[in-house]
Structure formats: structure tokens, C-alpha cells
Amino acid sequence: MELLDKLNSAFFEIGISPEHKNSLISTLDLLKKKNNKVYEHSLRVGLKGREVEKFTSDIRPNALFYGGLLHDIGLVMGEKDHHIRGYYMLRGSYNFSARMALNHKYPLQRLNDDLSFTAKEKELNTYCSIIIGVIDRYDELTNQEMPDNSGAINPQIKAIIKENLILEYGFLQDPRGNKLGKFIDNLYRKKVF
After folding, report:
1. Is residue 87 in some structural domain?
2. pTM to 2 decimal places
3. pLDDT tens by residue, 94-139
4. Domain around 53
5. Structural domain count, the chain
6. Which residues are within 8 A (CB) of 129 and not within 5 positions of it... i.e. 6 or more apart?
7. What is the pLDDT of residues 169-182, one digit of tens each?
């Protein structure tokens, strides 16, 4: 199934309103016109975020889906500080995703924003930002020149990517319990990654 078909199927499954769907598509079209590879990457991250949501009860429905779709939107204005540019592009319309775009790249250096969130919403958003960062990195690593002719990723490479993600995100976020590392490992066991 093509990416756009998967996206439309996801929109249908969640029952998104036509207005909301058109708003998201219009926003994503900006990215498509600027850089089709990044556009496709954003669709993959959003769709993978939707899959990941099924394995955690901590996240509000569609937060990772929308956050993944929109996380790199700031690239339409240039690569430098795209996460900050994306935040300013999205805030007002997609505040939760705006904050995720702002913080998805730097897991240890959360940037401040001027949006009104409760402390609990900020904590949830930070968690979602980290997960989008993991999915973003996973997609970057798995969609380079690594798949073989059948489109599959060599199991040895897949194991290296898993260890990289756990080290890069899991241990940095929670060195004592490594909750995120365990979550990443679970996603691999469930064949989400």
C-alpha cells in the first residue's frame, strides 16, 4: 500500500472531519513542494506514531500520529532551526504538535514555549516529543541505503539500529529504570520496529 493510501486509510479509521483532513493535507503539501523525501519521511513517522500509540495507554489518541506528520514542517522555511520554525508555523492551529515539533530533535535540551499547558500536559507532551524523536531517528536509519532488494532490512543492521535507539534515547532519558529503552525493546518484540 502506498504512503498516501495508508494516510487516507488512517484518516478514515479515526473519523477525521473533512475540514481537519484538508487542513493537515494543505500543511503537508507545503512540505511536499519543498522536499518530497522529507514529506514521505513525515508521513512514515506519523503512520508509525499511530502504530506506536497502540502500545501505550499514556498518550492521548492521535497525538503521535499528528505530531509525526507535522514534526518537520519547519523545513519548508529552511533547514536551520527547523524545529523552532515548525513550532511557530503550527502554534495556534496545532499547539500540541507545535510543542512536539519544537522538542523532537533534542531529547535532553527541551526548549521553552509560550503555549498554555498544564504541568501534566507538558509532561505528556515531553514524553510524546521523545517518542517522536525515536520514531524520527528510526525512520532516518531504516530508510537510508540499508534495505536489500526485497525492501527488508538486514537483521544484523536492524539489531544495530535497535541498540542505537536504546542507547541514544533510553539510557539518556531514564538511566535508572531505562523505561524508554524497555519501551523501544517492546516495540521491536511486537514487530512495530
Report:
1. yes
2. 0.84
3. 999 998 898 887 655 666 676 778 888 888 888 888 889 889 988 8
4. 3-103+114-189
5. 1
6. 67, 99, 100, 102, 103, 104, 110
7. 655 555 455 677 77
